[in-house]
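Allow me, if you will, to draw on your knowledge of protein folds for a short while. A protein sequence and the structure tokens that stand for its backbone fold form the material at issue. I would ask you to consider whether the tokens describe a fold that such a sequence might reasonably adopt. Thank you for your consideration; the sequence and its tokens are set out here:
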Amino acid sequence: MHPLPFIQGTGKHTALYVDGAPYLVRGGEIHNSSASDLSYMEKYVWPAYVRFHTNTLIAPVYWECLEPEEGMFDFSLVDGLIRQARERKHRLILLWFGLWKNSASTYVPGWVKRDPARFSYIQAQNGKTPRYFDAPVRILSPLCQAAVEADAGAFACLMEHLRQTDEEHTVIMVQVENEMGILGSDRDYSPEADAAFAGTVPALLTERLQLSGTWQEAFGDYAAEAFMAWHYATATEYICSAGKARLPLPMYVNTWLEQAPWIPGRYPSGGPQYKNARIWKAAAPSIDIMAPDIYVTYFQKVCQEYATPENALFIPETRVEAACYLYALGEHNALGFAPFGLEDCAVQMEETDARTLEILQISDSGANRRQLSGQLLGQAYLLTAPMTDMIHRAHAQGRIRGFLYTGEPQERITLPGADLCITYEHTQDSDPTGGGLAIALGDGVYLVMAVNCALTLESRQPGWLLDTIGKEEGTYQDGQWVRGRILNGDECYRNVFGNEVTMIRLEMLAYEDA
């Protein structure tokens, strides 16, 4: 009997447990359409993920494929994904593409789309379909209970099928919907929504947030977003709890973050953005994690916002950056990291014609950059694979830090017994982002894993210096350090990490500066 995966702990001390042990998601999220063709997965997707030393693949389940006719279910794609993952000793995180994907309702079945009398859509202020950059966006309203109930019924059937067929728990987590919120409008202006907006704030929010009155009276300029956050969150709770009643796997929602020009509707209004966290936490208690999709430049800030005592950091979508992975793991004990479209990094220039690159929207330089990014992330995944328990313990004892280049050429962070002084080595835009993590092992011994930076360890005690009395490259295997080269001489005084993710072990001796 395999124990059910679960999440336990708070803040940096949180862990995802799989088969009863802490589990670090070294993953990638596949392209939206890839999972609709199992032969395509075999040929193009799985080889890339195995190559990059992942242990988890994040893949969609499409409502339109699962329930093509109302009440008639087809689980062949789900079963095929699970079979393929087991053959490669991978775990799966499933994305439920139900009512909402990137705000829009593109993955709902045809029988839903063809019945607008039963399944109502969001309206903009002019009573028409919202438009995002002049393109119409059809979004089923979270206030439409018929739509929410239909989605919840299908999602419950999916979880029941997993309960009956996935006894090994190849599926370890589920994302409920995808990047929810309204594009093209700050809120739903349908007659039903207008009536609800004119009413008073629900009692639960009055109690939790100490607010009262109508939505406009309680939230002022933020009222439209707060109103939609409440309705998206309550709809998600209905769907999530229906699924958990069948199989209580950990479940999360992902977030299209706020971004310039900072106008609700230019990003999905009412989604689980940081500003809406209190409403989402109150209305959707069955959701275990609010997870950011990080494509913005301020990666550190987003991690800091979402890594709270109430919310563990999990990054289900982002760019392919090894330094970001190491930073999130070292600084915030991230439960996992999963760049979007990691399979693109396996594209070989010499095997790819210009037309294929055009279809993939990858330039020659972009393809080379992606290959390097994938290679570096694969190195980081490989190095951290045997270290999950060690990293988890280091966070529990406050002995680990992460660092990341954000534009400043130098950075200083504190570790037990010493300061780590980092200089970032960026010379051109094509260089990989610099960063890494460091662990204090005790008795003056430090472990550093990094890319594209240089660093030194300095004493914080006035009048004292640190001398390097041992420096080794190496890896961990079965929890034990396996030494590579012994580094001395010119390599001893400055620890330089180039365009390759490497790990070194430093033994430092403190002495008084006579």
